[in-house]
């Protein structure tokens, strides 16, 4: 739908027009929503990556840094990864600007790749031409039947993320571990 579009009458009626003939319990779920309770918001994505996620002592995390299409279900996950990596690079004894620069360098390439992948999935899902939709749906059904694991390959490099590990220098200095990153 074009940005800012609203239903001519009521958003619930619009949902029923679009999904009312879907399988159970789709119609029942939409039907259980009260009048005026369907909220409609446009979804925006940052397809051109920001040059950096930080400036001086300020950093962006989550959607403010890398808003993406919800097609891979990754926006919230990436926000959590941001927080983990940010904490990793900002131990109390490190210069904050240096830590934020390391955070930015670590997160920009990964989130940019996922934003692009989500945008690709979004284009695929929003196909509207009859033949293209038929081919897409047929492919998805075939993959689902013959090799369900194949569909999960789309998440290679995404769902197998591991948080960064602190590497400690051997020994301690003044009773404290040294250089914790
Ligand atoms: C339909 C849909 C499905 C999704 N499904 C998934 C999923 O399955 N898995 C997943 O991981 N992610 C999913 N996401 C993405 C996920 O919801 C977002 O990526 C995530 O909420 C981003 O978190 P955030 O904290 O960065 O931003 P937000 O959740 O947007 O939080 C920002 C907050 O700041 C507040 N705010 C804004 N301006 C101000 C201001 N001036 N002063 C004070 N407060 C302010 C806002 O009210 C809001 O509460 C989905 C998104 C959509 C739209």
Rg result: 22 Å
Helix content: 40-55%
Q: Structural class, from secondary structure content? A: mainly alpha
The hetero compounds bound to this protein are: flavin-adenine dinucleotide
Distance between the termini: 47 Å
String of helices and strands: HHEEHHHHHEE
| Average pLDDT taken over every residue | 89
What is the percentage of strand-forming residues?
Answer: under 5%
**Residue ranges: pLDDT <50 for 5 or more in a row?**
170-181
Morphology: globular
Number of contiguous helices: 7
- The count of β-strands is 4
Strand arrangement across the biggest beta sheet? 1-2
Biggest β-sheet strands, sense, barrel: 2 strands, antiparallel
Summarize the structure.
With 181 residues, this protein is mainly alpha-helical.
Task: Characterise this structure.
Strands 1-2 form a two-stranded antiparallel sheet. A hairpin with a 2-residue loop joins strand 1 (54-55) and strand 2 (58-59). Helix content is 48%, strand content 4%. Residues 170-181 have low confidence and may be disordered. It is globular. It is built from seven helices and four strands. Helix 4 (75-89) packs antiparallel against helix 5. The chain has helices at 11-19, 26-31, 63-66, 75-89, 96-125, 130-146, 148-152; strands at 54-55, 58-59, 172-173, 176-177. Among the domains are: 1-42, no CATH class; 54-126. Flavin-adenine dinucleotide binds next to helix 3 and helix 4.
